[in-house]
Structure formats: C-alpha cells, structure tokens
Specification:
Largest sheet of chain A: none
Number of domains of chain A: 2
Main location (chain A): membrane
Number of strands of chain B: 0
Number of helices of chain B: 4
Largest sheet of chain B: none
Number of helices of chain A: 12
Order of helices and strands of chain B: HHHH
EC number (chain A): 7.1.1.-
Radius of gyration of chain A: 20 Å
Subcellular location (chain A): Cell membrane; Membrane
Oligomer: heterodimer
Membrane topology (chain A): Multi-pass membrane protein
Order of helices and strands of chain A: HHHHHHHHHHHH
CATH topology of chain B: Methane Monooxygenase Hydroxylase, Chain G, domain 1
Shape of chain A: globular
Shape of chain B: flat
Distance between the termini of chain B: 57 Å
Structural class of chain A: mainly alpha
CATH superfamily of chain B: NADH:ubiquinone/plastoquinone oxidoreductase, chain 3
Strand content of chain A: under 5%
Helix content of chain B: over 70%
Structural class of chain B: mainly alpha
Number of strands of chain A: 0
CATH architecture of chain B: Up-down Bundle
Catalytic activity (chain A): a quinone + NADH + 5 H(+)(in) = a quinol + NAD(+) + 4 H(+)(out)
Number of domains of chain B: 1
CATH class of chain B: Mainly Alpha
C-alpha cells in the first residue's frame, strides 16, 4: 500500500476541483449573462477568463470580521464543516474505467451519507452568527435540505434495485452490459433526483436559504472574506459532486463512443448537468417557501416511493 | 490481498478528509498575513440593516421546524432499511418484496395521516 500516490492523487484532484469551481463560476455568469442579453464579465483577461481569480484574490485580502455577539468557536468551525464533506465525497467518484480513487462497495451510501453533513455547516453558521437574517436563512435552509434529502435518497433506490449493488463502478458496468443509460428505465427516479438535487444544492429556483431580496444573504450574512468564500466553495464543489453522481448513476458515467477517452465523456456529461442548474437559474423565479415544502412532502416523496414499488415489482417479476 | 484493497480504499477517504480540512485551515492561517485587521465596536456589531440591533437572535423558533425534523427522522430510518433490501432484492424474491411493500404501505399511511392532520402545511 503506497501512501505517496494516494496523497498525490488527492492533492492534484483538489487543485483540479478548485480550478473547476473557478471555471464553473465564470461559466455560470457567462451563461446567465448571454441568456439575459448581456455579455457577463469581460474585463479581466480575454473573455473575462480571470474574473474568478480576481474575485478570490479580493476575498483573500478582505478583513476577517467575527461579530461580538457571535459564538466564536462554532462560527469559525461552520465553513470548514460545510466544505469538508463536499470534497470528501469526490473520493469515490470514478472518472473513467481506470481513473478512480476509492472503489467503495458502499459508494452510493457513502456519497449521500456524507453529503448530508453539509446541512450541519449551514445550521452552525446561521445559529452562531447571532443574527436574525442568518438564523431565519439557516432554519429555512435546514428544513428545506432535510425535506429534499428524502426524495433524493429514495430516487436512487430504484437504480440500486436494478443493479443490485451500491458500488458506483458496478452501476456503470451494469449500464454498459445492458447497453442503456439508466435514466430511461428509471425516468421517474431521474426526474425526482433532478428536482430534489436543486433544492439540496440551494440553487435557484429553490435558493430560499439565501433569498437575497428578503434575507440579505441568508445563513452567511455575518461572514466576510475567506470564510464566506468557503461557504461558496462548498456550494460549488457540492454542485460538481451531485452532477458527478447524476452522471454516474443515470447517464452511464464514462461510457461513450470510443474515439475519445472516458474522462472526456464523464466531464462532458457533468458539464451538461452544471449547465442545467445555471439554465434553470436564469429561467425560473424563486419558489415560495410554503409551496416548496408542500411540493417536497406531498409530490416528490410519494412519487419516489411509487418508483421504488414499481421498480421492485418489475425486478422480482423478471427474476 | 482483499483486505489490503479494502483498507487502501478507506485510506483514500481519510486522505480526502484531511485535505478538505487542511485547505480552509491553511488558507485562513496564511491569509492573516495578507488581510488588514482593524476591528472597532461598530464594525463588530451584528448586522441589522444599519440600525442598532435589538435583542438576541438565538431565540425559540416556530414549532413547524421541529415537526419537519421528526418526519425527516422517520423517513430517514426508512431509507436505512430500504438500501440493504434494494441491494439483495434479486435473491429475496417475492417474500422480500411483500415484506417491504407492507412496510412502505404502513409508512405511506403515516404520511397520509400527517397530510390529513395538516402537519405538512407550512405557514
């Protein structure tokens, strides 16, 4: 067991992910810009390519303010708690047939289990700030995230039933063997997954925890400088991770025509999901909080349960 | 060999967690050299749209949040049962299927009851 290559892999991946987040933020601003007939950022470097770099540098030299009334220890810990799981879940993503780190046989469970820890960071950040907007934002955020975690988790059960394994690589190999991406036989599960993933990521139209028109900026109102940057970073890394999971379980992972390597197809599919999040943000207005909660409990959870019942009956019927 | 592979997989997990902790800790520590530090009372007061903050923010909040949390725990435990069942459904056959359908039915009845009791309403 060689430790050095492992550390190297994790270190390189961390840097790639940071670069990916920088690219994703630029991509988001450009996409939304063009959708609203603007050009988006275009001052820093050609095509605004250095915009995110400039933003990060600016955040780095901003004063770090911890309010008097805040609960200092929890306040400092919250962004770290929010960031760590979002990066740690990437350990189990298999980028291609040969490029992967941890080949866990409980991959799906590890993924969804660890990703729900992010909720704790939101709660800690909002509560410790001792600020009314932050508290409201974090309470809303937690209620929303735990409500939509259930349909998110249930929507994957259909895939697990069909494949008979929790290993992310087995799921891709299964899709290779039947020659079909699982979003077709699991269409209902896929739709439930996509909707609850948006709510889980706190992205528009379900960005109520950060509803800037009513809550300033929600749970991280009191955060400034690099601490705030880590909340934003966690959000984007989590978006990348959720896109990677969707790619793996519903879109056949690295599968694609042979003339290009598997990593390319994986990244292409992942970019497609990222694009969908941005597209929805530019298209839909923010949902109302009571509508959001009702929709989760009264529509998505029954649909996800229905999907499990249908899939399991078909599975046993076919043998 | 098998066990070795098992451990190396979880070593990756530990390394990833350590890197995840190291990045914020290191960048915030070294950031101290770059950022200014000029705190005074007005700057460190709680933000409340520019006026003087009144009262505490860490108050008791609406009971609806607790009810959602309780509902969440019930369904979260359901998923704990669903996952191992889903993996082994191929071998369990009709017996396993019927058992789980009854389980899901009971939970669906519970969801229907809280729906009827207007617990899921949010206002």
């Amino acid at each position: 067991m060689e430790l050095m290559p492992m550390v190297l892999y994790a270190g390189v991946l961390l840097q790639l992910i940071l670069a990916g987040v920088a690219a994703a933020i630029l991509f988001e601003r450009k996409v939304i810009g063009y959708m609203q007939l603007r050009t988006g950022p275009n001052r820093h470097g050609p095509w605004g390519i250095l915009q995110t770099v400039a933003d990060v540098l600016k955040l780095l030299i901003k004063e770090d303010i911890i309010p008097h009334a805040a609960d200092r220890k929890v306040f400092v810990l919250a962004p770290i708690i929010a960031f760590v799981p979002s990066f740690a879940i990437l350990a189990t993503v298999s980028w291609s047939e040969n490029l992967y780190a941890a080949d866990l046989n409980i991959g799906v469970l590890y993924f969804i289990g660890l990703s729900s820890v992010t909720t704790l960071g939101v709660l800690m950040g909002g509560w410790s700030s001792n600020n009314k907007y932050a508290l409201l934002g974090s309470m809303r955020g937690v209620a929303q995230m735990i409500s939509y975690e259930i349909p998110l988790v249930l929507s994957i059960v259909g895939v697990v039933i069909l494949v008979g394994s929790l290993n992310l690589r087995d799921i891709v190999f299964f899709q290779e063997s039947i020659g079909l991406w699982l979003f077709i036989p699991q269409f209902l599960g896929f739709v439930v997954y996509m909707i609850s993933a948006i709510a889980e990521l706190n992205r528009s139209p379900f960005d109520l925890p950060e509803a800037e028109s009513e809550l300033v900026s929600g749970y991280h109102t009191e955060y400034s400088g690099f601490r705030m940057a880590f909340f934003m970073l966690a959000e984007y890394v989590y978006a990348i991770a959720i896109s990677a999971l969707a790619t793996t379980i519903f879109f056949g992972g690295w599968l694609g025509p042979d003339f290009l390597p598997g990593e390319f197809w994986f990244l292409l599919k992942m970019c497609f999901f990222m694009f969908v999040w941005f597209w929805l943000r530019a298209t839909l207005p923010r949902a109302r909080v009571d509508h959001l909660m009702n929709f989760g409990w009264k529509v998505l959870i029954p649909l996800a349960l229905l999907n499990i019942v249908i899939t399991s009956i078909i599975k046993v019927w076919m043998g | 060999m098998e066990l070795d592979l098992y451990f190396s997989n979880y070593t990756y997990v530990i390394i990833f967690v350590l890197f995840g902790v190291a990045l914020p800790v290191v960048s915030l520590t070294f950031g101290r050299l770059l950022r200014p530090k000029n705190p005074y009372d007005d700057k460190l007061s709680t933000y409340e749209s520019g006026i003087k903050p009144t009262g505490e923010a860490q108050i008791r909040f609406h009971v609806a949040y607790y009810i959602v949390a309780i509902e969440f725990i019930i369904f979260d435990i359901e998923t704990v049962f669903l996952y191992p069942w889903a993996v082994s459904l191929g071998q369990l056959g009709w017996v396993g299927l019927n058992a789980m359908l009854i389980f899901i039915l009971i939970l669906a009845l519970g969801l229907g009851y809280s729906w009827k009791k207007r617990v899921l309403e949010w206002n």
